[in-house]
Amino acid sequence: MSEHTNKQFSAELELTRSSFLQMGGLVEAMVQEAMEALVTGELGLVDKVRERERDVNRLEVEIDERIGLLIARNQPAAVDLRLLLSVSKMLTDMERCGDEAEKIAKMARRLHEAESRYIPAVELRHISNHVVAMIRDVLDAFARDDAVHAATVVRNDKEVDKEWKAALRHLITYMMEDPRTISRSIDLIFIARSLERIGDHAKNMAERVIYMVHGDDVRHTGVKATERIARGESPDDIDA
Amino acid sequence: MSEHTNKQFSAELELTRSSFLQMGGLVEAMVQEAMEALVTGELGLVDKVRERERDVNRLEVEIDERIGLLIARNQPAAVDLRLLLSVSKMLTDMERCGDEAEKIAKMARRLHEAESRYIPAVELRHISNHVVAMIRDVLDAFARDDAVHAATVVRNDKEVDKEWKAALRHLITYMMEDPRTISRSIDLIFIARSLERIGDHAKNMAERVIYMVHGDDVRHTGVKATERIARGESPDDIDA
Exposure check for chain A: N or C terminus, fewer CB within 10 A? Predict the structure, then answer.
């Protein structure tokens, strides 16, 4: 590669990174706005989420196209190739987080248009804060090539799963006590489920960051082995 | 590339294709077996699904590793690169179909262990047949580089969405009429939701097959434009 090509390639890699971070920032905002719409009933936010969704879709396609071109033209190897392949996978998860945020926003509209008396859904706010933090953490870990920080996201997903199960139990109890709330509670269950899925996607992205940094595939290895690999240790070391 | 390297590369590409088809075959079986367990209560199938899930995970990691090596070593371009990038994305969707099948199998166990009297859930069987056919179609389309066939999967996903919404309405009515069925019905709603997601993943994979064949990204373009692109026409042609 000539020095010129090399410089241009580095610039293109940086652009790929920064575009993905931009896309991630939009998705983070979408989740927050969708939940804000749900809690406050401010339905202008629903339109905002839907607008952002179009930007996210556009970025997904653009970034993927650039990745294909960069691999074809510049024939990257090792860490550069891992960056590009990782972003290509993370794009999919990020876009689906955006889809889930859009579903939440639509559900918020339906719930608020259907009735004035409304469940404040405090518990969901809690899961929501949790998964928004996970998206932010995975973006930070990606921006700083920080595998250890990425591993915390993998661990946090376990917490979100617990919170989701607790919210589900609570909503089922609520429906049983007052069957008139069934329809509304089902909507809330789907919102909780969407949040849980966003946590899952954040975990998937975190696993890709670890792959990007170390070249090890930590999908299906369990949290403890993931944390060891993220620290650069052997996955089979005895726990300290 | 020397003739030898070239031959070896072609063989590796074929192996990548056939491994993905093998993985797809496992996932197709998992969905069928999970639903069979649900409908018949034959819980040995649940263990079978969980075993297959491990094979699917192993294949996911192996195929992805081979793709990374092939891109780094052989620096493929054009259609070969599109094949590898497409399979890399499809792997994720396929593995998640397997996850959904495993969730269904676990739910089947819980439902059958909890009570003897049981809802036959005929409607779910219908959605299930539909999404299994979609997985099979997308594998066929992939094996034969058939973009037009892939586009039928994208269209079929609309049908699955309708069936899912109908099943949901039915189950909500059921709960309202007899609140004692709430807990069980929620489980069935999640099974229906898993099936709907499998349909979604099949659609995503079908879009990747079209990209592989034509090099056009049809995510977010709508069904009609997708069908035109799959036929090799301009996306903006007037409908015949």
Answer: C
